[in-house]
Amino acid sequence: IIFLILFAGLRGDFTSDYNNYKKIYIEVSESTWREIFGFHFGQEIGFICLTKIFATVFHSYVIYFIILSALTILFLYIGLKDSVEHRYIWLSLLLFVGVGGYYDSFNVTRQLLSASIVFLGAKFLYNRNLARYIIVIFFASFFHVTALIMLPLYFLLNVNLNKKNIIGMCICMVGIIACLPLLIEIVQTIFPKYAHYTYGMSRGSWKFIVAPLAVFILVIFSLYVLPHNEFNLKNNRNRIQINATIYCLFFSILTTQVFMLGRLIYFVQPFSYALLGNLCALYKNKSDKQIVLFALICICILYPIVIFSDTGYDPYYFFWEMK
């Protein structure tokens, strides 16, 4: 974990938003608390206040990046302790690094921090403690407003997985995909700042479906080969993690139409990675378990190579190597 924190925190400016966050840090450090609460910054107030505290205490943007990385990774790790069989936490962490949001946190830092806060409160979702869950979601939204998507998902992730509900879920998802251009037009009307956000509203690549689809296939394979009733779908945690895996794939499909929607994946990804760890713990057949683990490890190694090749992430360099 320490290595992951330092590798992320000591990175150079090879991502598009690195210098933007550095600029925010400098502007906030030079602003008074009165100016901060004047809401003239474009980012969420929770993130700006956190930045002001770090700037006041440490006076170093490098330490600032290290602490942001540490919070993101530690919150995720604590959430995994409540979500996955302990001896397979390593697998869920590997999935986070290989196909999850770890590398994306180098760029979309606020959103990954917000998503890790949401996952930190996963136990309230499992225990159906709606009041505490809402508090966690609203707190996370002070770092990135998209955390509010997890409010309706509280109910959607708790839906029982029977034939009727699965058919209804599929029909709704197909309907949303078909009506997406109209829905985007409505959103742009309500939130004019997105009307000219052509980059975020453009189509994404089909390559973003690869990882969620692979995870989904491995989950289906695991459920198929496991002994009957070995995986209890009436268990809240199991049901929520299965539903989250479905929504992870759904959001990735939406990304092919609207690139920005892919960022919703960050909020449900950790649940699907925890699910794979829990499923691996149930395997009695050693060869089946080895097949799944080998496939997951290969995906975690190959996926970032394919995705980040010839992008801003390639090559990686540390902050002291910046030009």
**How much of the polypeptide forms β-strand, as a percent range?**
under 5%
Number of strands: 0
First and last CA, distance: 28 Å
Residues in helix, %: 55-70%
Low-confidence stretches: none
Assign an overall shape.
globular
Query: Major beta sheet, specifics?
Result: none
| Average predicted local confidence, pLDDT | 88
Structural class: mainly alpha
Q: From the alpha carbons, calculate the radius of gyration and give it in angstroms.
A: 20 Å
Spell out the helices and strands N to C. Answer: HHHHHHHHHHHHHHHHH
- Given the structure, what is the number of helices? 17
Short description:
It contains 17 helices and no strands.
Structure description:
- The chain is an all-alpha fold and 323 residues long.
- 65% of the residues lie in helices and 0% in strands.
- The longest helix is centred in the last third of the chain and has 23 residues, at 286-308.
- It is globular.
- The two termini are 28 Å apart.
- The mean pLDDT is 88.
Question: Main traits of this protein?
Answer:
single chain; 323 residues; mainly alpha; 17 helices
Task: Please render the helix and strand layout as text.
Blueprint: H1 2-9, H2 18-29, H3 33-36, H4 45-58, H5 61-81, H6 89-98, H7 109-120, H8 122-126, H9 130-141, H10 150-156, H11 163-178, H12 180-190, H13 198-201, H14 210-225, H15 236-255, H16 269-282, H17 286-308
Helix pairs in contact: 1-5, 2-4, 4-5, 5-7, 6-16, 6-17, 7-9, 14-15, 14-16, 14-17, 15-16
